[in-house]
Design a protein that fits this description.
With 288 residues, the protein is of the alpha+beta class. It has helices at residues 95-104, 112-116, 118-124, 178-192, 276-286; strands spanning 2-7, 10-14, 17-22, 29-30, 41-46, 49-54, 61-63, 66-67, 71-73, 79-82, 85-92, 137-139, 146-148, 196-197, 201-206, 211-216, 219-220, 223-227, 237-242, 250-260, 266-271.
Length: 288
């Protein structure tokens, strides 16, 4: 017997053992719904039987339109409602299980439902918020102190900010560096020309100096733009964790490729050697 949870037009097969469903980054099945608790429910699947129990969620869970109390068994056709999300339980056996696995989980099984539900997830999110004006000071990535934008060296710890910022002093550029700068600009233009989609996907940006929760509106196969008033320097190694709907979190090793301090402040992030499965997910999402 195989156990599936159907969500919209897709389904996710649950492995034997424990599956945690919620909003937390570490959940096996995540939902971007503020009414879903970080760790909402637990499903345990063993020996062709499964049961579900709530994990002290704030807004409760409904099993077949009845409040979930204690541990309850899951039968074929049961419905689970948590927040605004409704899941349907599907038990499959024999050859039908193999067919279901092939049709509902083609290349990236655990993200099948996430791909099919991305349009609904976007509708659930509000329109992009108006970005506030950039602050009159910059944040030192070394000591996190506020430093006047015109300073090139942090007066608190001595950290040297990168040259070429909009607020930095005009400097002479040796002719020998011009070719390198042109090549870098051309490479950046090529990266920016990659297919991009204005998809609203929550992300978590993490580096040695800070962690940012944000929503990206600009995703491509090679990277993503994260709007933020807190900025790391170009070249900073980081990790971007994409949080698609109805799927596990997707961590991707990345690097800060560009920094925007005026207009819409934020960081252009370049993915660093994403895995084959991540590339497949990106291609499937961007081709929709």
């Amino acid at each position: 017997m195989r156990l599936f949870l159907e969500y919209h037009e897709g389904s996710v097969q649950l492995p034997p053992g424990e599956t945690i469903i919620g909003r937390d980054v570490g959940c096996s099945l995540r939902f971007n719904d503020p009414f879903v608790s970080r760790r909402h429910v637990r499903i345990v699947f063993e020996d062709d039987a499964a049961h579900v129990e709530e994990l002290a969620s704030r807004n409760g869970t409904w099993l077949n339109d009845e409040p979930l109390v204690g541990r309850q068994p899951l039968a074929d056709g049961d419905s689970l409602r948590l927040g605004k999300r409704t899941l349907r339980v599907l038990w499959v056996q024999g050859e039908a299980a193999e067919a279901a696995a092939e049709t509902t989980q083609p290349d990236y099984p655990e993200l099948a439902a996430g791909l099919l539900a991305i349009d609904d997830a976007i509708r659930d999110l509000e329109s992009p918020p108006t970005q506030p004006a950039p602050p009159p000071a910059q944040t030192c990535p070394a000591c996190r102190s506020a430093v006047a934008a015109i300073h090139d060296v942090c007066p608190h710890c001595g950290h040297e900010f990168r040259a070429g910022r909009p607020a930095s002093l005009t400097q002479q550029i040796p002719l020998g560096e011009v070719d390198a700068m042109v090549a870098e600009a051309e490479a950046e233009a090529e990266r920016r020309s990659a297919t991009r989609q204005p998809l609203a996907i929550p992300v978590v940006y993490t580096s040695e100096t800070m962690t940012i929760d944000a929503i990206t509106w600009d995703l491509s196969r090679s990277g993503v733009f994260i709007a933020s008033l807190l900025l790391d320097e170009v070249g900073t190694k980081c990790q971007v964790t994409l949080l698609p709907e109805a799927a596990p979190a997707i961590p991707i090793a990345s690097v800060v490729a560009r920094v925007t301090e005026e207009g819409e402040p934020g960081m252009g992030i370049r993915f660093h050697e994403p895995s084959e499965r991540v590339r497949r997910w990106l291609e499937a999402v961007l081709d929709r």
